[in-house]
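Lab notebook, bench 4. Still working through the backlog of constructs that have no structural model yet. Next entry is a single chain of 138 residues. Request: give me the structure tokens for it.
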Amino acid sequence: MAGVNPYITERVYEKPKQPYQITILHDNDPHVITVNPKDLPYERSGLIGSILDICEGHDIPLEHTCGGVVACSTCHIIVREGMDTCNEASDEELDQLENAPGQTRLSRLGCQCVPNGTKPVVIEIPGWNRNAVKETPH
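Model written out:
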């Protein structure tokens, strides 16, 4: 389980109330997942129901050096569809996003982006957002 960043206030956000579909594009491979709010949280990385939480719960690699506590930008994602269903980015998230390479107007941190489940969402994990030297479990 990830920790908590003591330097930011706890986020209030709308969690999904109904199942919804999310497509996560990773290495040009689409992972289509039905997120059921009853199954949340999956792994407790990032906010409950965040893209990071969903990725961790479905074995989709999404780098998160800080453990999902808004202290880095390694979980940078791009919301290709469904941005209007996601919670608003906090000032702390926007500050960290400034450090992310390849930032677009659709960029978010996976640890903070929580879709509310009102329609399908498509997320891209940028190809350059990989840790090629990360050790794998033995």
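Notes after review: DSSP finds two helices and five strands in the chain. Helices lie at 51-57, 91-97. Flag for follow-up if needed.
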